[in-house]
Design a protein that fits this description.
heterodimer, A: 238 residues, mainly alpha, 0% strand, B: 107 residues, 4 helices, 2 strands, 78% helix
Chain lengths: 238, 107
Amino acid sequence: MTTRPEQTGKKTLHEGVKSAWPICLGYIPIGLAFGVLARKAGLSPFQIGIMSIFVFAGSSQFIAVSMIVEGAGPLAIIATTFMVNLRHLLMSSSLSVFPGKAGKLRLSLFAYGITDESFAINFSKFAKGFWDLDRAIVLNQTANLVWILSTIAGGFGGQFIPEKAFGIDYALIAMFICLLVFQLRGHIYVISAVLSGMLAVFLSIRVPGNSYIVIASMVAAAVGVGVKRKFLIRGKKT
Amino acid sequence: MTLPDYFMLILGMGAVTYIPRWFPIFFLSGKTLPGWFVEWLDLIPVTILSAILLPALVTTGTPRVFDIFRPELFIAFPTFLFAMKTRSLGGTVVVGMGLYWLWGKYL
């Protein structure tokens, strides 16, 4: 009598890969687009590949490439990457309730594959109970492999794709639009997003460089927490 | 950027990306973060995405100037609606790129 999923290697592999499929479908066009953009920014397919292997975080890779184009320094790029990917802290925290007493090495391997997309799928599967750490690792690594290969393929194709072809310059904006839509999960998220966007526009005109992203997002999130807490306390009284 | 410089950049980016992914699940299993910090972290993705997106839609050039009459902004509306309706990341990217491409070709 156990609710644990079946423990055979073949089944684990099969279910992990199968569940990664929706993620891969999203990663392929974005990975290709990233490879093309990175190639246009002067990175070789090899450089693109090692960035995808070591960083494996779509939006921050796009941002890094656009910052390289703008001539930003390594420290500014690393600081922005840190801020953009700080959200994984929360995802990793909420996932930490599931694996139980798992080996440190397996936990470390699993952590490497935490992304917005894999978090969403792993979390819901863990919560339903038909899931374990091995399946989650297979899912993460499948998505990871597809991401790496897509970005490298885009890098090789990039040199054959002329400037402005197929609206590739809009890939980044479209991806951010969709990721933003995913995050609009209630009034407080909409309020914080509007506030952050307006603050960022204002700062980006006044202050040179990319610091407006970090400043606007931290301030707007803090105001958002304030609004939420004030609203909740008032809500309790009435 | 030289190759050694690039390697240093990648190692730095890799480290600051991996540590937030690894630290909580490795050390904080079972423990909880302060409520205000969790709430703040929870709002960070949406505020970062918005802070990246909006200036890209309504400003242009270096130094940046305010300009709302740009295809980037016009195309954003149907792309946003498509994302709301389908919630498909790959589909939204393809649709956004397609509309932007058509705009450049015919307008």
